[in-house]
User: Fold this.
Amino acid sequence: MSFIGRDGGAYLMGWTGGYVLLAMLLAPYLRKFGKFTVPDFVGDRYYSNTARIIAVVCTIVISFTYVAGQMRGVGIVFSRYLHVDINTGVIIGMAIVFFYAVLGGMKGITYTQVAQYCVLILAFTVPAFFLSLQITGHFLPQIGLGATLDSGMSVLATLDQLSTDLGFAEYTAGKKSTIDIFCLTAALMAGTAGLPHVIVRFSLYLA
Assistant:
């Protein structure tokens, strides 16, 4: 969002909305069907072992692709904190994940992530409310964005100037049309809702 401005909001809304889509339209019905995994659901729903095998292959490919990116990120984090090689950082991260996965199982990992999300949400939203109240006098940041500051500039104009001063695009800049933003957001929502490991975790949590 810093580099492309308003258009970057589609990624934020798409990935976040994907979890909402999954929680409302897919995971409860998967659990109600009596299955926890996508291959089991597909195989039983369509009475086909071929469909089950295809779902297994797709799940493995998607999961490995997703895990590769996550492990790379873990390796970078541990290499910076521990001053070790990235490959060593990946091994350390995998060992930690393996340790608490064995102890707590898939459900334990799910509840750990629930706790992490709660901490992240509070860490992002609480400062936003109080900053909005302190700077604009409005408690809700959504309303505060439309306020005018003591300098006579609006909050959005100030954010635009701050972004350009830091070398980024304007906060309100955007080249995509409304239909492009809508389609990109919908595609990201569907993609996020279709991640097999996320579906499993939502199903377990709703259980």
Q: What stands out?
A: The longest helix spans residues 86-136. The chain is about 75% helix and 0% strand. The chain has a mean pLDDT of 84.
